[in-house]
Amino acid sequence: MKRRVLVAAVLLAPMLTGVADAAPKQAPKPAKARYNNPAPKGFKRWNAPGVAKVTKYIYPKREYVGLFTPGPDKVADAARFGRATGRKPNIIKNFYNWGDDYDAAWATGVWKSGALPQLELELWPRGRGITMATIAAGAEDAYIRRLALGIRAAKIPVIFSFAHEFNAEWYPWGTCSRPQADDPAVENACDYMNTPAQWVAAWRRMHSIFWKAGASNAIWMWQPNETGSRPEIKLRKYWPGANYVDWVGVVGYQRGTRKKTFNGLFIPTFKQIRTFTKKPIIIPETGASTGKIRNAYIKDFLAGVAHYPNVIGFIWFNADKRPAERDGDFVLEHQKSSVKVFKKALTKGAFGFKVK
């Protein structure tokens, strides 16, 4: 027994001496994984003094998980959605109409909950004489400035988008390529005949007014609908330019019983966009109607977002649009199996992070 102890001591001596003489160097911390494309070298986003800097939000490492619900308490809805899916939304969307003031209390509540507020500004001008042309000509400068000053005064980041899905006729600010003859009481682009030049001029004018007002805490999101529904309309004509856009949003849904894949629905639009810009892409509206193919869409969609490093996340449109708008029921919780599929798919990608 004594001999074994002696041998052990002799064998351990050099090791113990080394510990006493010099502590081993600590292994370097592993670099945090990046799942999306980094900001371009030399990228510098102008920030006005006194407001939140948004540069770090434009090129996130992980995927945004956003949510829209039609209910009045969207923060509470997002919390419930997060508990059900395992990922608390870090973007919460709200719709505004032209003339509405910035709801700073709502936006601040979203920010304090750990999410970025997203303001979707629409233009329903029936009887008011407001068009893309009048905006471009400066007739609405006072409202734009008031909106910009409200955003600056709140100081927090906000994702700002105006006149979305412009490459179709179903909204009055869009493009009339297929005249509608369904309901004369519902406005559409064929009532106004906007041109690409007017649309671009209106966007640039708004952006310039925001900049002069110091509202650099707005992240500008330019968002067409996926091009498959109106392939005759080319997006490049509506591109305001890299200095006027932070994100490109591509809207796309799984509607009805026709099965769609991420690649089939979005990649043709991505390819067209990549001919004129390399800005980060986000899916600002998506959903799938309840039914047999819904779960397959969810699984494939989330795998697609996770796979492409130029796609930085999505916003799920969690609303039932039947029958008033003759659309689908996109509420995830209305199909229990979909919640399970959604939750499991989120664990297979770099989805979700707390906005600080």
From TrEMBL:
Family annotation (SUPFAM superfamilies): (Trans)glycosidases
Domain GH26, first and last residues per copy: 46-345
Keyword Chloroplast: no
Signal sequence extent: 1-22
Keyword match Transmembrane helix: no
Protein origin, superkingdom: Bacteria
GO molecular function: hydrolase activity
Residues at the active site: 165, 285
Alphabetically ordered keywords of this record: Glycosidase, Hydrolase, Signal
PROSITE patterns: GH26 (PS51764)
UniProt-listed InterPro entries: GH, GH26_dom, Glyco_hydro_26
Entry's family note: Belongs to the glycosyl hydrolase 26 family.
Protein name as annotated: Glycosyl hydrolase
Phylogenetic placement of the source organism: Bacteria, Bacillati, Actinomycetota, Actinomycetes, Streptosporangiales
